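Workshop exercise sheet. Pairs work together: one partner reads the sequence aloud, the other fills in the structure field after running the prediction. Swap roles for the next sheet.
Pair: D.N. / O.F.
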Amino acid sequence: MHLKKLPYKQQIAFLLGGVALLTYMVFSFLPLHSAKTEAVMADSDHEAVQVYLFDKDDTLVPVTFKMDPSSTVEERLQMMMDYMDGTNRAEGFYPVFTGECNLLNVEIADGTATLQFDDGFSQYDEKKELRVLEAIVWGATQFPEIERVNLKMNEELLTKMPLGNTPIKENMTKAMGINHFETATVSLYNSSEITVYYVKEIDGREFYVPKSKRIASGDPTTEDIVREMVADISASSGLHQPLYHDNIDVYDLPRDKGVLSVSVNSNILGDDSSVNAQTYDTLVLSLSTILGVDQIQVKVDDVVVSLHGSNEDIMQVSSLVYNEID
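Structure field:
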């Protein structure tokens, strides 16, 4: 069978059409490059405020905004609430409350903050009631002055949430967890909670997202916790776990007076022997959630490694800043 030769103009049109189709396929099927968001060291003035907001999948994402370093903790908490109730908006994220929620008063004493709200505190989606608590507690305890949180509405101390009656414990801390994994395989008794950081792409940018789960140990050691952190977890909503993907192994975990040194295999390094940013960041951020850990040091073959070269000073947990947006 002989193919009929196309006229010259039709050959050109056919060729251009093929080029256009090939270009479309390349850009459609190749992964797009996303800007990485690295954990960095902040200065002691704490010039940033972190707010927990929903993404399109109703996952709470810590989003960091710059703020005047001379502002008070009360002013920073007010800014946090302005984003949480939608007074201020961040592109790609959604407020926690469905209407205006005013923070009327803040009392801080001996590490405990009592936050008093108006009736707007009851304006939220009842199905997300636990998430509302998580967003407030994790947001408020970012400040060194606040370790525990109590809530009031119209001067009455809250022992349960207004809509679904979720119990509110006195002196809530980050130990309550965030973005919980739902599981029926681990008993709520004789188990403990850990929080692991993941990577999620939102509107072309990568954000670090904390997610908690329970492990089958009533009193886990540091080794138990870290072993679970680097294990595979069936995550939902497009979360990616670099620690598992890169096969990170932990060999030694000496801990002394709040300083945790972690020796890992060389998989944390790239082909050019530089540190893999996502893997390093998720490791450090996950380790920072362990109770009593104030400083973190990561080593490969007894050499301290970081994103900025070897032999960097120990990472201060209180000064980690990530997911910063304008």
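Discussion prompt: The mean pLDDT is 83. What would you look at next?
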